[in-house]
Amino acid sequence: MHIQDILNQAQTTCSFEFFPPKTAQGAEALFENITQLEALKPAFVSVTYGAGGSTREMTHDLVVRIKQTTTLDPIPHLTCVCHQESDINDILERYATAGVSNILALGGDPPRERGDWDRSADAFRHAADLVRFIRKFNEQGRHADKRGFGIGVAGFPEGHPATPNRLVEMDHLKAKIDAGADYICTQLFFDNRDFYDFRERCELASIKVPILAGIMPVGSISGMKRMAELAAGARFPASLLKALHRAGDDAKAVERVGLHWATEQCRDLIDHQVRGIHFYTLNKSDGTRQIYQSLGLRDSDGLR
């Protein structure tokens, strides 16, 4: 289903993100979790794309499997780095043939082993360039849906790590929307005030597409440290850190604190008419299901 239709079905949507497993055993474990989360009837699920396209085939296989064997709408990530137009064209053709309706277009990073990659060799320097290419593909009528692929892009409530100038950062986001993006999915954040400020700045910039809030519960102290690295500057409020400090070395207590914090974030976001909540699941189902239960929801229909 095209993302415009998906978002029109509910005042607030819920969606989940997965990453491609590296082994057959991991694939089966992931599908068990996907089956459990399928019962929550998410608006869609997204599948990540490794740096420089390093998980290209695994991403494709997982997306097609979700499309063919579940009731879920999969949205694959697609990135600019280490790609030529022919690469992206081939990927879009395969997804169109498989009946996939939407793409999340990202700038992306080079793989670690190619950290010195020369970006001048890439056909797409910025996510806006990739959005324009997908729009061009759509205009050629090569998708069964006459609108072509729905297109999502990333937003950064705490600021983009590569763009310290927040005014220029908003210019870049506006360029992605003007290129043809249909919605924004944000990077994870832990203070809702950052999201509300980001949403207001989007309004000032005449960005009118739906904005989905990215939420990831803290599951462990080591996981929080990895988040800080991967999210390149994620801001952890002092009150959250104090609660985690009180939990000490009790892993279960740390997990409870993380789930409680994420649940309160979601409750507050829903109360403030957030357009959607996108859960970064880390391929697990327990935390997301517990948040649903704590909010009194059986499935995403409860957010209509």
Walkthrough of the structure:
This protein is of the alpha/beta class and 304 residues long. It has a single domain, classed as TIM Barrel. The chain is 45% helix and 14% strand. It has 11 helices and 8 strands. The protein has an 8-stranded parallel β-barrel with strand order 1-2-3-4-5-6-7-8, surrounded by 4 helices. Strand 2, helix 3 and strand 3 form a beta-alpha-beta unit. Helix 9 packs antiparallel against helix 10. The longest helix has 21 residues, at 251-271. The two termini are 18 Å apart. The mean pLDDT is 91.
Features:
globular; 304 residues; 8-stranded parallel barrel; alpha/beta; 8 strands; TIM Barrel
Secondary structure blueprint with pairings:
Layout: H1 3-8, E1 13-18, H2 24-38, E2 44-47, H3 56-69, E3 74-79, H4 85-98, E4 102-106, H5 127-139, E5 150-155, H6 166-178, E6 183-188, H7 192-204, E7 211-215, H8 221-230, H9 238-247, H10 251-271, E8 276-280, H11 286-294
Parallel strand pairs: 1-2, 1-8, 2-3, 3-4, 4-5, 5-6, 6-7, 7-8
